[in-house]
Design a protein that fits this description.
The structure is a homohexamer.
Chain A (H helix, E strand, L loop, with lengths): L26 E12 L2 H8 L5 H17 L1 H4 L10 E9 L2 E12 L4 H19 L7 E11 L6 E2 L2
Antiparallel strand pairs in A: 1-3, 1-4, 2-3, 4-5
Helix pairs in contact in A: 2-4
């Protein structure tokens, strides 16, 4: 937060811009984000049941998250197009729904927390799409950065 | 929920598929979804301050949400490519952060709740991208369908 | 121009929106747009010369224009995703540069003038990309709608 | 212009190709392009009027231009996919219409003049989309590179 | 084949165009395409082995095929953007490799054989990407339309 | 093939991932792939005939292949987004159909064989789209990597 009270993506007159990062160092940067899809007990029961091939349901959401991370600069207007060197998305069925974690890694000039958040949210959206006929009230919650490393600011861990 | 206990996007053997909707009626369908970006008091103060051109910050997120709705079939693996006939995204600064609502309308063969949810989440991601230098702990919460109309199931309102 | 003095893509409070067209009739709508790439005499001479395979240079620009028309809703934030039922892009070498015309046709709920303008501009950009090593001062000029038909407003011809 | 009379994007037999730049140096390169949307006095008056939220109209076009720059390799068939490290798009209302300037910066292997031109033209298209109900004769004019720096050829300024 | 000896996607003078289909009837049209990825016995053994989670390997390719079908108009320059109402992609491990079948269904104005072929080829490419470290010589073979129905020409079955 | 019997794109538990390549060296890597579109004698005769502008038919397929190479990370779920520094696609009419070769070159952290294969298959799909009204039985065959260079494994040539 080099300039408190200023949004770095806006010029002094308030116009949106893609901030110049050409002078930043190329270096390894990572981010880990998490989030949840809150589901009804009936929906959780289906995902846990042996009758339904749970693997493919979670597998679709996982792949959507990985592919979503690659679409980040298409979706977020002021995000830089960036090399992505590794993406992992984990989904686990819990009592309250599905827990999602994304880990993103790059060797480039900007952080990858937006890519990690995008991976989590797109995986969550795909999960809802799979389950919405059973649980139309499914809710995305608690999507946030857990940790980021690299760059001038070094390691940041969620307080 | 025509087939309790079955995920409609999976075949009987569990393989993912894009469900055939060619026999569904073309008709007006709408969906309204909402969500929030939880922010620190300092971030809220900046968005509310007269010194910062708040309009453009929220304007970027609004536009990201509208454009995001159009990318839904690119992001959600089993979503149908669909005509979108109207999209509105509202953002309002509240004490706890930014409240987001999306309204989507179509005259096509499938519902548009995934488009509304995608509009909300992409607007939320763009909002976080704008504010993350000030508040790296910003969190997306409570993203969910509020109401949908049209199609065989008619009106559904969040219980 | 149903509401003089109002930009239809903005709500009363000035927020951007994708205007609802779900109540509009499906009908055949067409648009023709034109534009030019102004080039140096040397660049025109190369395009006209028998030594250079002119066909492929113009062919690349033509195809870029056709494909560009399909990307219109990705590029123009408030444009509706729309069915495109026919696109033709013509390029002709003239003394001052390359003349471009695009004709677009649809049977859908909104006009296709933005698709025609996008086809012309993307063809022009591709033409510049081909010729820029020879003529770095190449300029796009006079990109405009020549005629549109269909919809409630019927035929409009450039005055 | 290393090979006068040859289009570098075509092979000797005239086939289109993406030119190999893998041996070029990575270095900071910039480009500035400009263009105009010519509008009727009535349209200019609306943009200048206090009654209409001018900010958001220009804001939509600005954002479209920034996002358009990122789509350059999708639109221009022989353009390299390239890292973009900074993009600014300025719009100003003048008597004859809207003046647009784009500045693009990268640290990569090819110049970014096509990205700057694409930012200007997509911003211009979005501007027309916003105003076309009021001024269906709006015209894009004078889109051209003003200056580029970096690479083997160094600084080029429009003569 | 209404005009023997003429390529319908080219004008009389040989220029590419997107053929006008606005006058065609909206109706149900289907296509089925198939193809194969030829693999080494070692690669087939891995896919069949219980040690490797075969499901997810084939699941990635299946999903890539479904999503690839949606990208058809982005990839094939003269293809119409079209509504897709149902897509299924099946993969089966055989002695010689992986057999792929895609079924696509729409209620629109053009046939969907290109969408079915694209689904098969993208699934095949994704399959190769998964297995290429084990079998760098993997080969795509026999990609072709098996059957199409609907439209003026009715049912066509591969001779 | 560093880990025989393991698919590198799957974790030990079988979940898909984008493999981390941030520690790999940046270096020049190339790939050459080939493939064929098998056509009826009548279709070959049309492509060879002087009456039909063969150039543009093959030109469309060539451009589709080049642009397709750029879409590789959008299509192949676990492919890294990668800089492409050179792409050439050659098409030649032979007795049995059209022969396609793609050469791709990069200076980045991963190989480009998937990009070369994608260029060949997309060119083949576009070729079929051009000729399908004349030869609905056109078939894609023998798509495979011929040679790759660069990276830790060095030169690989098809056995």
């Amino acid at each position: 937060m080099s300039e408190p009270g200023r949004l770095t993506h806006l010029t002094e007159s308030g116009a949106a811009r893609m901030v110049d990062v050409s002078a930043k160092d190329v270096g390894v940067r990572t981010a880990r984000a998490s989030g949840r899809v809150l589901l009804s007990p009936a929906a959780v029961a289906i995902l846990r049941s042996g009758e339904v091939p749970k693997g493919d349901a979670l597998g679709v959401a996982r792949l959507a998250g990985i592919m979503g991370a690659k679409r980040t600069p298409d979706l977020i207007p002021l995000c830089h197009p960036i090399a992505l060197h590794g993406v992992e998305v984990d989904l686990a069925v819990a009592d309250a729904g599905v827990e999602i974690t994304a880990r993103v890694r790059t060797a480039d000039r900007t952080g990858v927390e937006m890519e990690a958040l995008t991976a989590v949210t797109v995986a969550a959206l795909a999960m809802i799409d799979m389950i919405k006929a059973v649980d139309p009230a499914a809710t995305i919650a608690d999507v946030r950065v857990e940790e980021k490393t690299g760059g001038k600011t070094g390691v940041w861990t969620r307080p």
